[in-house]
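Researcher: We're reviewing a set of sequences before deciding which ones to prioritize for further study. For each one, I'd like a predicted 3D structure that I can look through quickly. This is Ribosome-binding ATPase YchF. If possible, include the structure in token form so it fits the rest of the review sheet.
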Amino acid sequence: SLKCGIVGLPNVGKSTLFNALTQSGIEAANYPFCTIEPNVGIVEVPDPRMDALAAIVKPQKMQPAIVEFVDIAGLVAGASKGEGLGNQFLANIRETDAIVNVVRCFDDDNIVHVSGKVDPIADIETIGTELALADLASVEKALIREGKRAKAGDKDAQKLVALLEKLLPHLNEGKPVRSFGLDADDKALLRPLFLLTVKPAMYVANVAEDGFDDNPHLQRLRELAAKENAPVVALCAALESEIAELEAGEKTEFLAEMGLEEPGLNRLIRAGYDLLGLQTYFTAGVKEVRAWTIKKGDTAPQAAGVIHTDFERGFIRAQVIAYEDFIALGGEAKAKEAGKMRAEGKEYVVRDGDVIHFLFNV
Ligand code: GDP
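Model: Here's the predicted structure for Ribosome-binding ATPase YchF, in token form for your review sheet.
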């Protein structure tokens, strides 16, 4: 399954955040397709729609979607030259599908900042430069290798070389591949290179408890992120780790006292899921209300394949009720009566929240 890698300079609050995630996480053993490693946290995707569906269907069981976060330690300036745990760091990040960049946006004289002062923009540049330099090295190596094949007349190699030659100056400026404006074909060509800066990225601003408003660090980060079209989640990692340690009852009480509807982690988890290009459709029966994870753009047969490969192979059609209709009309029977249950075929692109029942041949 797809994973978000958590990166950031030392002392920005990564471990604190990761511990909060794993505290509120679930047993990996129940999810055979997940990675069981100390640095991988598996968390349920908080989705209020599940509760709304359950209130109507009254199922025996609920099964939310899950997403994986990987704690990737060891980023320091010079990582791309193998400094610190540089090589291991880059290898770990290569195995993730999206990058969650934790940035320190709190002032605290007791906690050392690696470069001497709190400066989110400089920190982001440090990280961005290391990743871009690592990609630059990959591109240069590939140019040598593919250049020979291109000269020998290999058409695919010629296409790749042309693309790499355009990418080279972009990376040389320390810019990420994702900002180059690649189309789907370009991305497919580049896939074998396992570049780092092509992965989607977002920022987590680690702020002080009272640092959500009037915080110049956060403001600068937001401005930068807006230019990059990157999402920002602001939270206080220290507070999140305290919340994560509370029992369910205490947690509700604590959040209410703070005037919060949910922990900040929930926003992070949903943003991570979205960043990975994932979305949810539901099956809603009395036995179980379940959230199934698919990629944005997946068709009905592909969505069926997530339940079982036989469902994809033998797909006949999908009976689909939009989430809003299901809730507004009060369930499947009434939605059907109102003509809101659609029969969709092989070409149907599933929408986020669709409540689906598949018909298939075995
Ligand atoms: P990492 O090196 O990025 O994994 O950072 P850690 O999670 O180990 O945090 C570094 C230090 O910053 C620790 O002493 C944390 O207690 C402290 N810290 C983490 N998050 C916060 C926060 O939100 N506010 C404050 N004041 N300190 C924090």
